[in-house]
Amino acid sequence: MSIEKWNQRYRAAEQSIETPSPLIARFTADLAAGAALDLACGTGRNALYLAERGWRVTAVDGSPIAIAKLRERKIEINAEIDARVADLEGSEFQIRPDSYDLICDCYYLQRDLFPHIKTGLRPGGMAIVIVHLSDEPSESATRARPGELRAYFDDWRILHYREGRPDDPYHQRAVAEVVAVR
To answer: Is residue 7's pLDDT more than 80?
Structure first.
């Protein structure tokens, strides 16, 4: 979907979700806070959740409307979040190596980001990724094939992997989820 279509959805408050992804909440509940990156953060539900728990969060999304809403919400709760507008597909944001303790990528599939996610984490850092699954066996630009997400992290310690109906009440399509540690 184009940035302009996302902007329209955010203007219409179609993507105004307040609660964090259940997978993020589950796997970060007992983690010591550190530096976190929230890719394709939308209006920042995960970024805000992490910041409220002491994480130093960088949140990136291509939609200026989404980032403006995140900036408004972070002021309301006095959260420290570096919220940036950047087109991830256009390489407007670079993930620096060994910079984060946690990288979240929820409901956004950009295959060429996976190597950068992996190198962007410090040793012992955690990646939490959720993508929609394709209904077709052929390649889809926005949906993963069964087993594809796991394969990106086969050389890491996988704490959680699941394919199927999401636990997130705001998403209905089948997903693949991975939580992996470098």
So the answer is: no
In Å, how far from its chain's centre is CA 147? Answer: 19
Give me the mean pLDDT over the 141-153 stretch: 93
Q: What is the pLDDT of residues 32-47, one digit of tens each?
A: 999 999 999 999 999 9
- Domain range annotation of the chain: 3-181
pTM listed for this prediction:
0.90
Do 81 and 54 contact (CB within 8 A), yes or no?
Answer: no
Handedness of CA 101, 181, 117, 65 (dihedral sign): negative
Q: Domain 3-181 belongs to what architecture? A: 3-Layer(aba) Sandwich (3.40)
CA–CA distance, 165 with 47 (Å, rounded to integer): 24
